[in-house]
Design goal:
The protein is of the alpha+beta class. Helix content is 52%, strand content 12%. It has 21 helices and twelve strands. A hairpin with a 2-residue loop joins strand 6 (227-229) and strand 7. The chain starts with a strand and ends with a helix.
């Protein structure tokens, strides 16, 4: 077994499955913070149940092997103990029996998650919690057993983080609703959803389906494991830490009751994780739906509705999963939202910037990857005209990068000659005092680095990529 150094000493996975020995002041506080009365109530589980329960399915060799392959395949960073994914197998060879025994006896104690902050579009950050590799293995094993059970219960209008469902399925359903005359929507925004989930309510909802108390107790321990942020421990009295294999499933379980309520009331809706759109035929109906839905979400599910972002609007004025909507000839149609186009241009500007340190081949690969990914995701949208406008802009960016890279007059003259520009013109343009962007749009550079030459050099165009993707559909 390998041990890795942490900032404040060695962190080891102890054989007792608790926390590291209390040999420093920091670790004393660490252990005491987890010794709360609320946490202790979940430590003792019913281990006298008949064999063959959900826990036995979770701990079966076949399920654990699948969980191991999934965790290793997903890679990812290590948790608070410093163990990396490639260290998991040697560790299991030594400690697998002790791990299984602690899980069966209910003495397993998950480690706190490591706090990581990811920047968002609005300048704020999304807080992720990275579990240890061992905890990820256990969470993945739980997910694999519970997911098929909940798939039988989840709504057909829920699409996020579910097998054989995705964003495109959700968007197709939106199209169907719009085509059926539902032109107004309640665009619901839940404020800091994963951070504000009421754990008691979540455990209650889990208990309605999961009858093995040992599994409920184990999930509760993961919820209460706490957070380690810059060597400071924080209790996790509410919320579901994003970043672990269980988080998406628990998020769907929490909002399943909302789905059932909407279905009971006969609403058309589409939900992708915590993004919810309720479709109505008139503005008044949508406003009435919103007024009835907010008390249910806040009063029954104990979640917070962001009233500033939640709105009633025509489908033309909403953004869902990066797409916009419109009606044409009585049918619902999809388009790329303006903000999604601007985000693409920001990415392309970064890659085609001169100061990003990329070489020619690295830049080309990165550009092509961005184009392929973006076109594949937005292939449902009507965007031929948009792509025809973006391609000339992107090619001009590429010409500007090359012009900047040549720097000296001598180099510019040499490269223009090499690309087929007559000597007089090459010398004249090599000495130009015009700015980079203006020069990139000149006929001379358009001739020297023509569209055909850029294409033969391996640079993809958005339009060509779109045609290829659509031919496969």
């Amino acid at each position: 077994m390998k041990f890795t150094e942490c900032d404040k000493g060695k962190c080891r996975q102890p054989k007792t499955w608790g926390y590291p020995p209390r040999n420093t002041a920091e670790r004393e506080e660490y252990a005491e913070a987890h010794g709360s009365q609320r946490m202790n109530e979940t430590d003792t589980t019913n281990t006298c149940q008949l064999k063959g329960g959900l826990l036995e399915q979770i701990l079966s060799n076949k399920n654990l092997q699948q969980a191991y392959k999934r965790v290793v395949g997903n890679k990812g960073a290590g948790g608070v103990d410093g163990m990396q994914v490639d260290e998991l197998l040697p560790w299991l060879k030594t400690h697998q029996r002790e791990l299984l025994q602690s899980l069966r006896e209910g003495t397993y104690r998950p480690r706190p998650v490591r706090r990581v902050e990811i920047p968002k579009e609005n300048g704020k950050t999304r807080k992720l919690g990275i579990p240890t590799v061992v905890d990820r293995l256990v969470q993945q094993a739980i997910h694999q057993v519970l997911s098929p059970i909940y798939e039988k219960e989840f709504s057909e209008n829920s699409f996020g983080f579910r097998p054989k469902r995705g964003a495109h399925n959700a968007l197709r359903q939106c199209q169907t609703n719009i085509s059926d005359g539902y032109s107004y929507v309640v665009d619901m925004d839940l404020e800091r959803y994963f951070d504000t989930v009421n754990q008691s309510k979540l455990v209650q909802q889990l208990s309605e389906t999961v009858k093995d108390g040992r599994v409920i107790s184990l999930i509760h321990k993961f919820l209460r494991a706490g957070i380690l942020d810059r060597d400071m421990f924080e209790e996790s009295e509410e919320g579901v830490p994003q970043g672990g294999p269980l988080s998406p499933l628990l998020g769907n379980v929490m909002l399943h009751e909302c789905d059932r309520e909407l279905e009971r009331r006969g609403h058309r809706f589409v939900r992708y994780a915590d993004d919810l759109m309720v479709f109505c035929k008139s503005r008044k109906a949508a406003e009435r739906t919103l007024n009835h839905l907010i008390p249910f979400i806040e009063g029954k599910l104990f979640l917070k509705v962001n009233r500033e972002k939640t709105k009633v609007a025509h489908v033309r004025k909403v953004k869902f999963l990066g797409y916009g909507f419109y009606r044409y000839a009585g049918k619902g149609r999809l388009r790329t939202h303006e903000r999604s186009v601007e985000k693409l241009k920001v990415k392309l500007r970064e890659v085609t910037g001169r100061s990003n340190g990329m070489g020619i081949e690295a830049r080309k690969k990165r550009l092509n990857d961005i184009i392929r990914g973006w076109v594949e995701y937005f292939r449902l949208a009507d965007m031929k005209k948009l792509l025809a406008e973006l391609d000339p802009w992107l090619r001009r960016r590429l010409r500007m990068v090359a012009w900047k890279r040549w720097k000296k007059v001598k180099t510019k003259h040499k490269m223009l000659r090499k690309l087929g520009v007559p000597d007089n013109q090459a010398w004249q343009w090599a000495n130009t005092r015009k700015g980079y962007w203006r020069t990139a749009g000149s006929p001379i550079l358009a001739q020297a680095m023509s569209n055909e030459k850029l294409k033969s050099a391996g640079y993809l165009t958005l339009t060509d990529c779109y045609r290829k993707v659509m031919c496969k559909v």
